[in-house]
Model the fold of this input.
Amino acid sequence: MLAGKKVVVVMPAYNAAQTLERTYKDIPRDIVDEVLLVDDASHDETLEVARRLGIRCFLHERNMGYGRNQKTCYTEALKLGADIVVMVHPDYQYSPKIIPALAGLVASGEYEAAIGSRILGGKTRQGGMPLYKYLANRFLTFFENLLLGAKLSEYHTGFRAFSRRVLEALPLWENSDDFVFDNEMLAQVIYFGFPVGEVSCPTRYFAEASSINFPRSVKYGLGVMVTSVKFFLQKLGWAEFRIFSSTGRNLQPNPYYFEH
Done:
């Protein structure tokens, strides 16, 4: 445990057989109490590798999307009694060695959420991030900071930590089941007034690491802008959207998965 807090690492997985073991072996088990993986109906041996490593596994009966995968991850982590939940992708793009820093920010009580930023430290492009992704990241981050009234270095990292309080409070089931879930969730964290910390995190871009293609990147970018506009309009009291509603704020059971 970290500062008396139970830390659970969750890994939303899809076709991660080639990188899962490397990711898992870098997780610092001296502060992480449990690791669980949700397999979104992979076509490779992700589940077999995870079981061989002794990871607690859950399987979606069919591919339900990255966002729905996270909803399952957080639901099961809370059932395990997690005080702090750290999400790390099993594709080895983010360094699990940074988990103590992320979890530590939340455990300190100063932050309710923390993100591993690829932008802090100034070595994003050296890690292999494609130029178009970097430029899109910078534009979308500027746009979001302007409309959300925040000053984060980026909003698009998949390496995050949350307190139990956040996960129980946010209306996560109102969010998309697709990739824009990440952005909606971070916007919700800010909307409901939870403080967010950041740490610099090196990333790796290589053939086996997962990455959405250009058309899906465009769809994600448009979704990010829509989320920001919704946030802005609701803050002004000009509209109301369910993702920023105070009702229905607890995680719900998902009937389409089971422990494997």
User: Anything to note?
Assistant: The chain has one domain: 7-259.
